[in-house]
Amino acid sequence: MADSLPKTYDDLPDKRRYWPATPNSADEGLGMLRLLTPEIVANAARTQIQTGERVCLNWDLEKLNPPGFGRKPFAHHVKWVSEGHAFDDEYHFNPQQSSQWDGLRHHNAPAPTPDDPNRRVFYGGTTSTEILDPSSTRIGIAHWAKKGIAGRGVLIDYASYVQRTKGVTVNALTRHTVSLDDVLTIAKECNITFEPGDILFLRVGLPTTWDNMTDEEKVKYSQQETPNHAGLEQSERVVRFLWDQHFAAVAGDAVSFEVYPPVEKEWDLHHFLLAGWGLPIGEMFDLEGLKESVELWERIPMTVHPEVYLKYTTRNSFTYTNGDYEGVIHSQQDQ
């Protein structure tokens, strides 16, 4: 699959739109997850999986609480389904409140035409009318759910790196910008060579930031019309880097993955990645336990979580599992 992609960013006929699949097809719905072929996943498992230690990547469902952007907060109700015999649990929540993948229906991008200079479309040219049509499954996340997301991942622990090298504690709810230079430096320190189909994880420390805030500060954050979020820089260099590596997905513990509001609006990563290339963006993953476990796993056993978990391999690598599918993640760690 990777062999069929334009090799470099410069090879893209349209830098902002790579829509190779047939409209309304399963391949279109997968986007860049098409890179996670059985061969890619099997190679990761065969070459990396060694032990069975696990750690959960899911943040608590009720965080952020209260959520930003005017979203409704999480609610959990326990009810008798058979009085005196059995309970049911009911959950009401917006997936954007906590750990989640931004699907291809989440964010569109400008696609002006002479007749409609304000035109905006989603990946593949999908329109908002199609998305609001309950009978339409075009680019729906069900295409991802059929097999899950699994593959080799690389963890760039930026929060630990800047604390160790620059004495900086990242406030993940500011416009703290993660530079591409720092990402590349961390990868070099860890002897990470990116491979086609990798899943890139970036840690900026959001759970720590949130847990250290007062209730008043959390309410103030939720009431902001335009909240600030730390994340990856927007630039042509970053866009070029993300394409040239042929990542299957990117993710992190930041609210927006990229710095928000965008510092360089021309290079808004949600426009390029979601609407342009079909590259999933994971947000608000809890990477704190992972960071600690990577440092200590040889001495301290990990906690098992059934939803999404990791299986450790070596001190610098561990496997990412979603459902019954396994892959591998390499980690940057404190020196």
TrEMBL record:
<feature type="compositionally biased region" description="Basic and acidic residues">
    <location>
        <begin position="8"/>
        <end position="17"/>
    </location>
</feature>
<feature type="region of interest" description="Disordered">
    <location>
        <begin position="97"/>
        <end position="118"/>
    </location>
</feature>
<comment type="similarity">
    <text>Belongs to the Cyclase 1 superfamily.</text>
</comment>
<dbReference type="GO" id="GO:0004061">
    <property type="term" value="F:arylformamidase activity"/>
</dbReference>
<dbReference type="InterPro" id="IPR007325">
    <property type="entry name" value="KFase/CYL"/>
</dbReference>
<feature type="region of interest" description="Disordered">
    <location>
        <begin position="1"/>
        <end position="23"/>
    </location>
</feature>
<dbReference type="Pfam" id="PF04199">
    <property type="entry name" value="Cyclase"/>
</dbReference>
<dbReference type="InterPro" id="IPR037175">
    <property type="entry name" value="KFase_sf"/>
</dbReference>
<protein>
    <submittedName>
        <fullName>Contig An08c0130, genomic contig</fullName>
    </submittedName>
</protein>
<dbReference type="GO" id="GO:0019441">
    <property type="term" value="P:L-tryptophan catabolic process to kynurenine"/>
</dbReference>
